[in-house]
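RECORD TYPE: protein structure
NAME: DUF309 domain-containing protein
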Amino acid sequence: MAAPSSSSAATAASMCARPPLTTLPAAGRVLLLPAAASSLIRARRPPSHDALLLRRPSSDVRCRRRLMTARGERPQEEEDDAEEQHVGFDAAVALFNRGDFHACHDVVEELWYGAEDPARTLLHGILQCAVGFHHLFNQNHRGAMMELGEGICKLRKLRLDDDPFSRFRDEVAAVLQFLYRTQKELAACTDELCLTMDGSPTSYQLLGNFAAGQQLYKMEADADGASSIIFSASASSQSVPLRVKLPALHATEQHLTALQCTYEYM
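PREDICTED:
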């Protein structure tokens, strides 16, 4: 079946306005917090002595200190927790790239709390992508598509080009189109009802609920060391399973710092 029309992309774009922050509890269950509840967890920690350096006129110091929390640093009263003190953006990247999306979410969420734009928007987008892939491999296809769509919206808002973050954004967008296409083929008809899968908001919602709880997607390592997402369903007539590249984030804390220091937020 042909890839979805531009209307499907418009559908994904329409999700940009959805404000809730998504969080994953430690037990592996999925919880979507409403906007009102999210304000309770976004309270900033008391500023440390280092945070006060933000007031210095030096632009170099200002750029460094604006990313203090995004580097895994903590206020002085929390420095006794050595394990948390050394968890930063590089650790989040490593977790994402090895498929530990739940743990990646937890790390990025901590960084997101204290970051400022544009890093804040970037981290929020990465967080939602991690949640989306966690959903995908745990049979929550609707949740996966919605979170990936929202994450893409955050990353597109930054209007980045030809850098590790823009390449990650494009790879995630390719996965979202793959999910829409494969589920569209699978959900086109049920035993009781044929659905018109035209990319409209209504059909998108119907699509997302179809095959809930079924293991349709799995990760598979490729010969070149990368990984792919494999679509496989008993109802599918594909002799060769469909696949798409699993996105990888090839960025470091230095890329995040450079973005924070040089990017003029739109």
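COMMENT: The mean pLDDT is 71.
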